[in-house]
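call fold(seq) -> C-alpha cells
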Amino acid sequence: MVEGVRKVRRPLVLMALSVAFLTAFWMELSSATLQEKLFWNYLECIVNVTLPPLFLLYTYTFLGWKAMIQPKNLPLLFIVPALMLAPGASWRRWTTAS
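ret:
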C-alpha cells in the first residue's frame, strides 16, 4: 500500500510545481516594479531547475525502473539543479537594493 501512495505523490508534486511556475510567471507579468519582477523571476528559476529531475523520477516510476529510484541515487539527480541555483543565489545578493 505504501508503494501505491508513493506513486501517487510524484505526479502531485509535478503538478504542484507546474502550478507554482505558472503562478510565479503570472505574478511577474503583473508586477509593477523591477524588484518585484526580479523576485518572481528568481522563483521561476527555482521551479525551472527542479522540475526536470522530478519529471525524470516520475518517468522512472512509470517505467518501473526501481534501480534508478534508490535513495542513494536520488541526490545525484539534484546535483545539476544545485549547481544552477548556487550562482543565482550569489547573483541575487548583488542585484537587490540595500
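The chain has a mean pLDDT of 79.
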